[in-house]
Every structure is written in structure tokens, then in C-alpha cells.
């Protein structure tokens, strides 16, 4: 039985939408952004359980390519990661992330994080072998659908 690649692509988009809830709010100065994952997610060197995490630049003045990942209230640091600048053609008003589907029961890997409105984002650096595998994996970019709340933060869920 032949399966049309288009059906596979549509199915994967639906799967990403159902598996990951991307909720975010942001702070311009250090690009602080809260992201909620409804499934475990891989970052370089470890796997983060499902939950809400705070992403921010370590020191945006001296090196805008070092990203720190904290728990939601920033009381526990999970990782300080070197990134490389990456570009996108169409910036969105909301936070966007790019994931690679690894399959085989492995969690999806976080490849890129884009702060709202920016063309330049942060691409996470994986080991050489893993980077090659992730480059060949199916990738999906998810954009947060933010809605203002009463305390001037924005939150939302993935589409």
C-alpha cells in the first residue's frame, strides 16, 4: 500500500500539535521566555521532563549565544548551553521553537529557539554524530499562540 508523503506530513503536523503545548511569555532585555512542553524534550546533554521552563540569555551584552534553561520560577538551573545564531525568513509575533522527531521512543530534540519578532534565533549545539542524525530527522517549527493576560504577561498554547 502506497502512502502519500503529503498525508504523512499532515499527520506529523497534527501529532506535533497534539504532543506539545507551547506556552510562552517573553522579556525583551534578556529574551526571557517561558515555554511549556507537554512531553519530555531533549536538549544537548540531557532530557527535560514535561513541564514549564524559563529560557533566557546568560549575558546578552557580552555573548548573546549562551542560553540558560531554568525551571519555571528560575530556582533551578537545568543547563547553560552554547548556541549559534540562526536565521529565519519570516519572524513571528510569538515565540517559536524547532523540534526534530527522533522516533524509536526517544523524545523530540529541541533544535532552535526564536524570540518573538526576531529574525535571528538560537540554534542548540549537539555532538557531531547526534547533530548529523538530527539534521536528517523530520523537523517541525511550532509557534506559540499568545494571548495577553491581566498581569501584562502573555501565555498561549501551540497550534
Salient structural properties:
159 residues; alpha+beta; 15% helix
Task: Please specify the SSE layout and strand pairing.
Elements: H1 5-19, E1 26-27, E2 32-37, E3 41-43, E4 46-48, E5 51-59, E6 63-71, E7 77-87, E8 96-101, E9 108-114, E10 120-124, H2 128-136, E11 138-148, E12 154-158
Parallel strand pairs: 3-9
Antiparallel strand pairs: 1-2, 2-5, 3-4, 5-6, 6-7, 7-10, 8-9, 8-11, 9-10, 11-12
Q: In angstroms, what separates the terminal alpha carbons?
A: 31 Å
User: What spatial form do the alpha-carbon principal axes imply?
Assistant: globular
- Gyration radius (Cα, Å) is 15 Å
> Unreliable stretches, pLDDT < 50, 5 or more residues?
146-159
Q: If helices are DSSP runs of H or I spanning 4 or more residues, what is the number of helices? A: 2
Summarize the helix and strand pattern as letters.
HEEEEEEEEEEHEE
Beta-strand segment tally:
12
How much helix, percentage-wise, in residues?
A: 10-25%
User: Residue-averaged pLDDT, rounded?
Assistant: 80
